[in-house]
Amino acid sequence: MGLSAGASCAVALCAGAAAWLAAAQDHGRRRARVLFVDGAVRPSLRARSEQAGVWLRKWSGERREWLCVPVALLVAVLGESVLPLLAGAAAVPLVRRWLCGRALGKERERRAAGVVALCGAVVGELRAGHEPGQALLVALRGTGVMGAAEAGVIAAARFGGDVPGALTQAAREPGLDGLAGVAACWRVAVDGGAGLAAGLDRLEGALRAERRRREELRAQLAGAWSTVAVLALLPVLGLGLGAALGADPLRVLLHTPAGLTCLVTGGLLEAAGLCWAARIVRAGEAA
Where are the beta strands (DSSP E) in the chain? Predict the structure, then answer.
């Protein structure tokens, strides 16, 4: 009965949304005729739409973990229990931590790629006849690859400071490990008179080869991550199959002592299995 009521509520919501869209379609056409003059959008409307788009992209990129709440609310309505809503609220910080980890990983990869591009740019400027400090300044212009540490490197290169020391300091940031090699090449070129362009050229090739190996390893482990995702979705598919057969699994799990016991035990086992599988895959990535 609970499932039928929830389904009826969902159907009613969908029908209301369809009716609202149909009523708003003609109004949108009339508004478009007013807003578009000779095929061009009014500047104020364009600026507002761009601001709204930026805000929406920023919100979707920074607040995606809050999508757990409406999903949990839907399950709570269908199961006629507050437990899914509490679980969804508890999942928000966990999902936020996972998303932050993914964002940090992408930022680390972006910085590593920036270091490789920086080596190539410095080599090009050196071979064009620039001095090492000037070549580094030109290569760093507008890249932002070093983040907060970039100011110290620029100051050292512009005013004749300790450029290798500044590069070594910047190499401590995540994803900037390759700058330690740049600092070593710079120090050898200054102290021993070796060619900086040749050293940076070899360093760029080594960094590109290492990045290529990481990409190949990530491609090989994509199947393992897909297996982990499938294992995570199996309980959800089981609930859907049970609901399709008319067993009403949500009522059993959320309103009976045996169902609550199975739900807690299964949740703990699911979390342990996912953590174990993810640890195995990460161990392969680290190797």
Answer: 36-37, 40-41
